[in-house]
Every structure is written in C-alpha cells, then in structure tokens.
Amino acid sequence: GHDLVEEFITDDFKESVKSVLDDALNGKETSNYEFPLYTKDKRLITILLNASTRRDIDGNITGVMGVGQDITELNEYRKNLEQKVEDRTIELRRSIADTEESRDRIDGILKSIGDSLIVTDMHNRVILMNRAAEDLLGVRFSEVIDRPIDFSINDKTLRERMKSTLEKKETGYEFDFEMPGENEQRLRIMRARTSVIINKTGEQAGIITIFHDVTQKREIDRMKTEFISTAAHELRTPLTSIQGFSEILMTRKNLKNEDKEKYLGYINKQAVGLAAIINDLLDISRIESGEGFSLNRVWCKTGEAIPGAVEMFKDQTNIENFTLDIELPEGDVEIFVDKDKMGQVLINLLSNAVKYSPDGGKIVVRGEVSEDEYVISVQDEGIGMTKEQVSHVFDKFYRVDTSDSAIEGTGLGMSIVKHIVEAHQGRIWIKSKPGKGTCVYVGLPRQSNI
Description:
Layout: H1 4-8, H2 11-25, E1 30-38, E2 44-55, E3 61-70, H3 72-76, H4 82-103, H5 105-112, E4 116-120, E5 126-129, H6 131-137, H7 141-144, H8 156-168, E6 174-183, E7 186-198, E8 204-213, H9 215-251, H10 257-288, E9 298-301, H11 302-316, E10 322-327, E11 334-337, H12 339-355, E12 361-369, E13 373-379, H13 387-390, H14 402-405, H15 413-423, E14 427-433, E15 437-445
Parallel strand pairs: 10-12
Antiparallel strand pairs: 1-2, 2-3, 4-5, 4-8, 6-7, 7-8, 9-11, 12-13, 13-15, 14-15
C-alpha cells in the first residue's frame, strides 16, 4: 500500500520511473529499464525492471506488473568481469522470458492464431476462445467460460455436429459447415479441425478446435471443375467439326468445288476457334507460372489501331444482328502500347459484347482523352450483370450465367485481359445493369513509364 516511487526510488530517477509506470498503464510496455532503488532497510541497489500492462479478460487495463532483478553485484563487477555479466544477463533474460511466457501463455495463443479457435476440456466445457471465434459464433468468451459448448453455438446443426466431434476425442478429425456470409446469397464455408491436448502425465486434458474459412478454396475448386468440363466441351466441339468435315473431304470423291470450299471454310473457322482456346490456356499458364507477358511496346496511333482491331473482329465474327459503331475524339492520339496485345484486349471485349447480347443490338467502341490516360470503352445492349457478377468477372474460369444462357468460352478471357492491361500500368473497370447492357472501360497511361 506504500507509494513505490516516493518511498523507494532515488530523487533523480523518480520522474523517469513514474513515466515508465504511466506508459505501462497506457498500454506501452518497457523492457530492461535500469535504475537505483532503496530497499526496506534503506540499502541502495540497482534494479533491472520489466514493466508490463495487466489486463482483465475483456482487455481492460487493470494495472502494471513489474518484474525486477537485483543487478547491483553485476554492476559493481561489470568492467572486470564482462563475461560473467553477459552470462548473468542471458540468465536474467531467460528468467524474464520464462516469467512472461507463463504469464502471457493465453494471450500468446490468441494473438498467434488468426483463425477461430476454441479450447474445451474433457467435459466439453469452454476454457478458451479467441476473438475470431467470438465473432464467428456471435458470443463473448466471458459469457461462456467454463460452460458447456451448447451455450457457445446458436445453430442447432452446428452445435450437434460440434458435440459429436468433441465426443470422439480424436486429433485430426475434420468436418465442413456453412455460416451466413456478407449477404444472404453467399454463404461462408468453414472447416473445423480438432487436436487433442496431452498434459505432462500423458493424459488427455482437452481439445482444441480450429475453424478455417475455406469459402474461396471451395469456390476455386468448383470453378476448376466447371472449367475442366467447359474446356473439354469447348475443345471437343471444334475438333468434332474438323474431324467430320475432313472425313467428308477425304471419303467423298465427287464433291463439287463450292462444297469443298464451304467445308474447308468450316474447318478453318473451327481451327481458328480451337487456336483461340489453346492461346487462352497458354496465356493463363504463363501468368500462373509468374512469367507474365513480354510486351513489345511501340507508339501507336489510336485513330488507326482501334478501327483496325474492330475491322479484324468483323472479319472473324458473324455480326449480322449487330450495329457496330466507333466514336473517337477529334485529332489522333498516340499511346505507348503493345499493339498486338491491346488488339487482343479489344477483340476479347467485342467478343463478349456479342456473346452476351443474344438478341443483337448496338455495340459502341469509344475513345476518350484525359490529361493522364486514354480510355477505351466497349458498350453493349446485352443481358447485363448484377454487382455480384461484376465482382467475379476477372476471376479465372468465371462465366456469367453459364447455367442459363449456355455462353461459350473457357472463362479465362477477362482474367487475361486484366493482366494485359495491368502489364501496361493501366486499369480496367466495368459498369453493368441486368437487362440494360454492359460497358467495359480500359484506361491506358498516355506517357511512357519506360
């Protein structure tokens, strides 16, 4: 109950020691602070202090704990016994570390694990829960400590699954479950894994259950499965046509020249489509391996390059039901880009505009100039997208409304487009509304960064 600073600290250190203690009360801990101190019998000794903030179970600061070591003897012989001082200092630090480890074991576990964690005893009572688990389950640890797991989990299905898992008393037992996500349509998929705690005597002392969010992993697995199916279908379709028409040409000797030309045209068209699919796969493979794109940049006139890419697209695509307009600003603008790669971007955006406009309509390619960038946009009058769909457009293997509209493609095009644009230090964004069409914008810097 005595005043530590006023009664035991020398006058010249009162202010600094008080500052150390005040810092600890404000959450700022101090390690290895050296100062002189009077003992109860008025001896003057030198103390090496570690001041740590003390908190209650809710994280509120309740005081300061000081761990002090009398280093008077070490101080006296420091100059002549340097090695001894070093050894004692190591011992001191080890002692302090052991003390802090014992004191902060629970805090250390909670801070080092980012996933949700619950520790239960052998009777399924909660003895530890970190903040992530509190947020996941919607409870506070202080409300359920030493209470059965039933009180921690509101969802009946999850509660029964958790209880049956804990009853197994096994390490490595896993199960998945669903939790509400950011919106009603998007659930979070969590995976729980148990580990049995063994005490010093070799007996089971409790069970640690860690929850991982595997929503993204499951979504990627789903998209990969869908991609494999889609890629197989997309590859099989042109191959079947190529095989069928080539067999006709080989087996029928009396074909008319116009029929031969027509069948050769079919074969060529399907071969071009097949090459496009393979190019997508090769491009995404290079991206995934970290190779990225090798850009061959040149100064390019937009007034020539954009109409040229549009004409190339017209030659490759049937656009009978579409009106395709180009709106460019007056005066030619030069940008420093890889002409072929940006042509690939524009053709991909035009191809999507056609694919997702089953009833035809108007497609407009625009160019807009600002001080820092040149913005190319492709606008259609197609089926449009929801905000949720827009947020996934650049994901690999993603295709909008594949189950309903049966849109062709591997789902890699927009991911590749994004990588090409970003390789040019540009940006890409989308505005879309269901039933109102979509507009994709590509902003390219007007100045060379090389």
